[in-house]
Each structure stands twice: as structure tokens, then as C-alpha cells.
Fold this protein.
Amino acid sequence: MTAHRVVVWSTGGVGSIAIDAIRRRPDLELVGVWVHSPDKVGRDAGELAGIEPLGVAATNDADALIALAPDAVVYAASGPDRDGGAVPDYLRLLKAGINVVSTSSTALVHPPSYFAPDWRDQLEAAKQGQVSLYASGIEPGFAADYLPLVLSTQSSSIEKIHAFEIGLYDDYGVPDIMSDALGFGRPLDFDPMMKQPGFIEMAWKAPIYLIASGLGVEVEAVRGFFDRELTDRDIEVA
């Protein structure tokens, strides 16, 4: 059996899990790892993922990884402006004939409702060379969209679908998301990205449209609300 050659893009929470999962799969071979931080360059991928050494050194040289001609890239880079940095990478990889699986652009779980039509069209054009782009995640990407659709098959009639994301963020090691996007550790007069008009709708409308499409109904409107409360105790976050 010939193993599929895989590159993992970023070694954060998702990337580290992917590295360990690839290690356990006889049908997959880890051939490269991309990192953003200069202090991670040259370090063993296994070490960065918290497992035993794997003999694969991390690099920040995207061209070198593309030159490896992997079958697929697991793209797991994170940050507030995920799509702004990720979409150009997707285009480079797809045009090089490399399949991409990404958890970084969850709005692409339903491409027709993607907030940037120009990017979406460019990505569609780049996939003409028998390659694929699969956007996924836990939420969006499974728990609040695909799973409700599967569960809906057990119902003879549906009046409402409620999907809640309740996050335990004490070990979520992405400071940009925690501070700039969500506002943890900032005063209440600081406006995080979540408070910007349209941001919540942009980030979470894809599951709504995906469910609506699966059920054959139309979405009339998507409305976002953002509330905060000041805690009465210290909370340690990433």
C-alpha cells in the first residue's frame, strides 16, 4: 500500500493533533510541517506536537514544502484574520496540484454563502486541476451543521433547531483570538472583533445556510448579537 504524502500547515492545537493522527495511520506519511514562529523552525515535528521525534524538521519555507509535491496539506493556521492569510495559501497549493483540508476557513463549509465571492470564485477556478479543497472543523463544520442535519432524519417534523457552542477556553492557546477577537483580558470599553458590525454573521452564518440547504428551506435573515459581562474574579486564559 502506497501511503499518501501529507504536509501539516501550523502546529497549534489542531495541527498538533493532525501530526499525531498522521503518525498513527499506515496509509499516511508526514513529509513536511510549516510553522509561523521563527523559534520553531528546524525543530522536530514530533517535539512540536508533544510526541516522540518523527524525523521531520519544521520549516517556514512554503516553496520548499510545495516542492515536496505532497498529495495533501492539512491547513490548520489560526488567528483573527484567518481567511486573509489562508486563501492566498490555498490558491498556491491548489494551483500546484495539492489537495487541501482546512480548519482555518470554517465559513467555507458552505461555499455559496461565503462572505468573499471573489475569493470563492478564485478557489473554484484553482480546483480545476483534479484537486480538492475541503473546509471543516468541529463548529462550524460538524456539531452545529452536519450533525443537526443527520439528526433531522429522525424527525417527522421540525419546528426549531438550536445549536449552542459552549467553549472551555482556559487552555485555548491562541492569544489573538482570546484577546483581540473575544476581548478577554481587555477593559469593557475595548471593542473586540466580535463586536464589529457583521462579524458574527460572517463567522457563523455558514452553518445556518448549510442546514437550510439540506432541509430545502430559505434563510430570511441572519442576525448577530454580542454581550459581555465583567467577571468578579480573576480568570486565567491563554
User: Anything to note?
Assistant: Helices lie at 13-24, 45-48, 62-67, 82-95, 117-126, 146-152, 175-181, 199-215. The two ends are 42 Å apart (CA to CA). The beta strands are 4-9, 28-34, 58-59, 72-75, 99-102, 133-135. The chain has a mean pLDDT of 90.
